[in-house]
Amino acid sequence: MPTFDPSQFINKNPIETVSEVYEPSHSFVDFKLNRKLTSTILSMGIQTPSPIQDQIIPHILEGKDVIGLAETGTGKTAAFLVPLIEKTLKEYSRQTIILCPTRELAIQVEDEFRKLAAGHKLYSVVCVGGTSIRPQIQKLRRQNHFIIGTPGRVQDLIDQHKIKMERTTTVVLDEADRMLDMGFIHDIKRILTDVPAEREMLLFSATLNDATEKIVHDFLRDPVVVSVKKKDVTNSIAQDVVRYLEAEKFTTLTTLLNDADTYARVIIFTAMKHQAEKLAKELSRAGIKADSIHGNKSHGQRQRSLKQFKSGQVRVLVATDVAARGIHVDNVSHVINYDLPNTFEDYVHRIGRTGRGDKRGQALTFVPTR
Hints:
The protein is of the alpha/beta class. The chain is 38% helix and 17% strand. It has helices at 35-43, 51-61, 76-90, 103-116, 134-139, 151-159, 176-181, 185-193, 210-219, 233-236, 249-257, 273-285, 299-311, 321-324, 344-351, and strands spanning 66-70, 96-99, 124-127, 146-149, 170-173, 200-205, 224-228, 238-244, 266-269, 290-293, 316-319, 334-337, 362-368. A seven-stranded parallel beta sheet has the order 3-4-2-5-6-1-7, sandwiched between helices. The chain starts with 34 loop residues before the first helix and ends with a strand. The mean pLDDT is 88.
């Protein structure tokens, strides 16, 4: 049973946060990057570094171990990719391993890498579970400058001697707290133990809990800590509860969703995988275009569902907590907790899917009428 009462977070008038305008200390030109890389960054519309990029890129360029405390949406992916691409262009034999909590996030990181590294002969491979290992082994036969993957599959490939750890110069732990939450602690420790002594470690995390601090203590050397915290999610998102009678729960949901103008792009959370699948089918039968994303779906199926949601072909995405990690979709109008989250942390993670950047979002939590 959930360990908190969502009704205590009712917030119908979220704070209008006026963010202080951050004045960066550097421009991308100041970093003295490869000219083609600088022009690629500028052509992507990134004129000035975000706070995390501004503060952490110089330390990575200097070869220091770093801890970046930052959530998604702060520009943290480019904060480590830009300096690592720059270093690889100067030293072509470098090998960077980037560990991510989910397949979806690993693919997003590689997409960003490809955009930034366009025009340079740098190679990357995504090594994730839930999809055939053979094509990944095939790609690992060439020299890959960036190996991006989930800890379980990367460890499998190390065990099969397909990833040569002695070549590794840098390891990035992206969303380290989530990887540890998802039970990857042993894989991560085994991978880090195999890395040569002379290497750089970059750890990015939204929070520093005990498990993350243990990794820092055991594997990072004199790290520089850069903390960039975003707005307080629970203050900036409109939140309310929806009371329902058990027999009318689904009808209560469809009544809300039939207002397509208001509920334009919605993520609904359920507790179990089979519930997510069932609810998406029931909504589709009720004339509401919906799809689901959960652990029982193959990698390809999850990617198709996500693509349909991002493109607007479906208006509603039904998800479980674990499957939703790594979902970063702009302009989500509502998050609906159809089933109660177990903890306050799960609640904050769920509702953070809406109200991204400077957009306003709304979160509704279904609570049974006693």
